[in-house]
């Protein structure tokens, strides 16, 4: 099923590995659920690349993430009940601590054979209203930095959060945001926009591009102007966008013409859901600079939300169509010509890990799917 990486013997250079068959590196912190979705004494189901997780918050407020199966009968622990500092399976009431160890089996006697030790626990941390887990080698978790959000800490920006499922390989999402030449897709929302690439840099684990967006007429959604600090009247001035894939995350900043401070910035992570990594869950934060009069942003909020939802819906339509084409063809037949995206693909390819061929077979057969988050 995996196409040979070498081209036909006609003098061409070897073909690189298909990026859509490269998995994301698990040795990073990934946001799996918003903190608000896990109140005290609550458990929710989450997933990372086919690994089911039960994320729960204890009575004292500690968040933990366990392998989502009871060691007894394999019933999902996300169906269980939080009692104090433990998560109790809904079936036979086996209780687990946050480290995955079994703390109690109600009917256990001295005559009972030695029970299993427990289930896998994932290192878990919280930041900026998100629950992050470390799905890779737990020995690397302490030395791996968590994403930093200075604007959120400073309180200078108001945060609009996104949590959406998109049925495509995570690499399509990186390409979509970094390649701003697709603005024709958003002509009904942004009007006519001329994106000019000012330059880009790349290196181990990152690609960063800078664009100038110049309006060219046409009808523009009111929320677009409010988001870029143009006010209700709008403006014909250009903006400068800086977009960076700093593996495995992605950021965007917009600075209006003549200013030095960003009007807004975006941080986003694309977390694979299924083992074949053909579906990802988008966890994003749009950080909007607070104006002098806070009430102005409150009034603009519904317009900004509507605008961003429209743009996201159009992008999702496009990337899911790309994934369907890949599924139908069984390979990546894209003819990419933009050097920036070619560099991005090589960076993602070298930073990721090969997918287990069994995951692709499983996905094609439709027999090993993971329940999709809403």
What does the model show?
There is one protein chain. With 374 residues, this protein is α+β, with helices and mostly antiparallel strands. It has seven helices and 20 strands. The chain has helices at residues 150-154, 170-178, 187-190, 222-227, 294-329, 339-351, 357-365; strands at residues 22-23, 30-34, 42-48, 51-57, 63-67, 81-83, 86-88, 95-96, 102-104, 121-122, 124-127, 130-133, 157-166, 193-203, 206-215, 239-246, 249-256, 264-272, 280-289, 353-354. Helix 2 (170-178) runs antiparallel to helix 6. The chain is globular and about 80 Å long.
Overall pLDDT, averaged? 89
How big is the Rg? Answer: 23 Å
Distance between the termini: 31 Å
Could you give a short account of the major beta sheet?
Answer: 7 strands, antiparallel
How many β-strand stretches? Answer: 20
- Widest sheet: strand ordering: 13-19-18-17-16-15-14
Give the SSE layout.
Blueprint: E1 22-23, E2 30-34, E3 42-48, E4 51-57, E5 63-67, E6 81-83, E7 86-88, E8 95-96, E9 102-104, E10 121-122, E11 124-127, E12 130-133, H1 150-154, E13 157-166, H2 170-178, H3 187-190, E14 193-203, E15 206-215, H4 222-227, E16 239-246, E17 249-256, E18 264-272, E19 280-289, H5 294-329, H6 339-351, E20 353-354, H7 357-365
Antiparallel strand pairs: 1-20, 2-12, 3-4, 4-5, 5-10, 6-7, 7-8, 8-9, 11-12, 13-19, 14-15, 15-16, 16-17, 17-18, 18-19
Helix pairs in contact: 2-6
Short description:
The chain has 374 residues and is an alpha+beta fold.
Features:
374 residues; 4-stranded antiparallel beta sheet; 20 strands; alpha+beta; 7 helices; disordered N terminus
């Amino acid at each position: 099923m995996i196409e040979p990486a070498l081209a036909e013997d006609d003098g061409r250079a070897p073909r690189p590995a298909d990026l859509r068959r490269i998995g994301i590196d698990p040795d990073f912190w990934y946001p799996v659920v918003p903190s608000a979705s896990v109140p005290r004494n609550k458990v929710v189901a989450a997933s990372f690349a086919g690994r089911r997780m039960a994320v729960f918050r204890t009575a004292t407020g500690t968040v933990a993430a366990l392998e989502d199966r009871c060691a007894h009968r394999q019933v999902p622990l996300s169906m269980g009940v939080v009692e104090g500092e433990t998560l109790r399976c809904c079936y036979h009431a086996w209780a687990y601590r946050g480290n995955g160890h079994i703390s109690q089996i109600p009917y256990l006697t001295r005559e009972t054979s030695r029970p299993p030790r427990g289930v896998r626990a994932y290192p878990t941390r919280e930041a900026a209203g998100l629950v992050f887990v470390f799905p890779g080698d737990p020995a690397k978790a302490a030395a791996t930095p968590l994403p930093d959000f200075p604007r959120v800490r400073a309180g200078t920006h108001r945060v609009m959060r996104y949590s959406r499922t998109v049925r495509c390989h995570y690499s399509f999402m990186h390409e979509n945001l970094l390649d701003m030449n697709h603005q024709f897709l958003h002509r009904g929302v942004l009007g006519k926009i001329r994106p000019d690439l000012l330059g880009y840099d790349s290196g181990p684990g990152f690609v960063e591009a800078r664009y100038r967006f110049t309006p060219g007429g046409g009808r523009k959604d009111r929320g677009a102007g409010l988001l870029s600090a143009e006010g209700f009247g709008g403006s014909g001035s250009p903006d400068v966008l800086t977009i960076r894939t700093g593996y495995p995350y992605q950021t965007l900043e917009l600075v209006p013409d003549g200013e030095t401070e960003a009007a807004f910035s975006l941080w986003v992570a694309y977390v694979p859901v299924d083992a074949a990594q053909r579906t990802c869950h988008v966890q994003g934060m749009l950080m909007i600079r607070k104006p002098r009069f806070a009430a102005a942003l409150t009034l603009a909020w519904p317009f900004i939300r509507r605008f961003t939802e429209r743009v996201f819906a159009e992008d999702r339509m496009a990337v899911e169509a790309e994934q369907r084409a890949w599924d139908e063809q069984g390979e990546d037949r894209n003819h990419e010509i933009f050097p920036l995206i070619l560099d991005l693909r090589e960076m993602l390819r070298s930073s990721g890990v090969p997918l287990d061929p069994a995951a692709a077979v499983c996905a094609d057969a439709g027999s090993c799917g993971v329940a999709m988050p809403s």
